[in-house]
Amino acid sequence: IDEKTMLDILSRLSCGVSQKDASWEVTAPSFRPDLTREIDLIEEIIRIFGYNEIPVAEYDWISLRQTPNAFAGFLEKIRSAALSCGMTEAITIGMVSRQQALPFVDDETQLFQITNPLGEDMGTLRPSVFASLLGSIAYNINRRQKQVHLFETGSTFLSRGPDQAPDEKLIFAGLFYGKREQDSWVQKSPDISFYDVKGKVQYALKMAGIKEIRFEIVRLPHMEYAVEVILSGERRAGYLGKLRKKTTNLFDIEGDVFGFELDTSVLHAAAGDRQISYKAVSRYPAVERDIAVVVSKEYAAGDVAAVIRKTAGTLLQNMTLFDVYEGTQVPEGKVSLAFSLTFQSDQGTLKEEQVDDIMASILRRLEKEFTATLRQ
Fold it and tell me: pTM of the predicted model, to two decimals?
C-alpha cells in the first residue's frame, strides 16, 4: 500500500499523523482507545483498504524468538517488591471529579477536562494517582478494614494548553492507612508511620536495581510534610510523605494517610541490573562501637549515615541509628545522633587499634563535613 493511501486512511479514521524522517507519529482519537500499538494501525489500514486487495503470501514465517521488553520487566520487579512488602495492587479509573483533582495541582488550568464526560464525577483526567486511589482507601475503611496498604501503577495527566494532548506519565504510587500490620493475640500493632513508608519505598527500589537513593525535604500543597526521592545523577523521581487532612477530608477519611508517587520512567533510567552474589559467613568475631555526634538540625541523619558508611569502608557490616536527642544537654539548634556500628573482617580478628583508627577517621570526616562534635 503506498504512503499516500495510508495517510488518507488514517486521516479518515480521525488519527493525527506527524512525519519524522522515515517514521510516523500517530495520535489516536479519544473514541478509539483500542489503537495502542503499531499492529493496531496496520490492521485498521488493511481493513479499510480491503483484505481482498492484499496479495496472498506464498509462505508464512513466524519467529518464535521474542525480544524481552526491559521496561515491562522493570515494572514487574517493582510490583513484586511492593507485594512482598505487604501491599495490595489496585486498579482504578483515571477519570475523577474536578473537586477530587484540584488538591493535586498548583493551578486549575493544569487540569485536563474531558469534553464529553460520562458524568460530573468523571469529568477530569486525574493529575495524581492519589485522586482515584484515595477513593479505594475510603471504600475499604467503610467496610471496617483497619489496615489498608494499596499501590497502583497508573497514568496521570496534566494539561499542556488548549487543543493539545495532555502531559501523560506512568506513575508508581501507594497509599497507607491504619495499622502497620494485623493485630495478633500477642500484641496490638502500632499505626503505620512515615518511616514505615520510607522503608518500603527504599526496599522496592533496591529490589528493582536502584542503588543510590537519598531524600530532601520538599513542600507540596496536598502534603502535610514530604521528602523528595532523588536517585543517581540527581534524578528526581517523586516524593513520599503524609497527606493533609484537608485533602483526605474530601474523601471522608478520618485518620492519617501516608503515600508516595514515583515516575516510572525516571526509576527505569536509574535502575541497573540487580546482581545477587553470595559469600561465606565470616568465621571471625564482630566488634561493636557506638558514636554520638552533635550536628546542626539542618542536616539529615541519612546524610550523616552516608558519610560514616563511606569513611568506614568494607569492614563496616551494619549501622543503626538508635538515638536522636534534642534538649538541655545539647545547644539550641543542634541535635545529637547516636549510631551503633558493627565491624567485621573475613580475613582475621580485628584488633582494637584498627577499629580505633576507623572511628577516628569517621569523627574527623564528620567534623569536616558537618562541623560535628563528639557528644560528651
Answer: 0.74
Per-domain residue ranges of the chain: 3-53, 71-270, 287-374
Q: Cell digits for 345?
A: 573482617
Which of 324, 349, 344 shows the shortest CA–CA distance to 334?
324
Q: Which CATH class is domain 3-53?
A: alpha beta
The CATH fold assigned to 287-374 is Alpha-Beta Plaits (3.30.70)
In tens, the pLDDT along 281-295 reads 889 999 999 999 999
Number of residues that make up the chain? 376
Residue 19's Cβ-count burial label (10 Å; 0-12, 13-18, 19+) is: exposed
DSSP assignment letter at 325: E
Q: Which residue has the cell 542536616?
A: 299
Residue with grid cell 510523605, as numbered in its chain: 241
pLDDT digits (tens, 9 = 90+) for 198-237: 999 999 999 888 888 889 889 999 999 999 999 988 899 9
Three-state SS at 216: strand
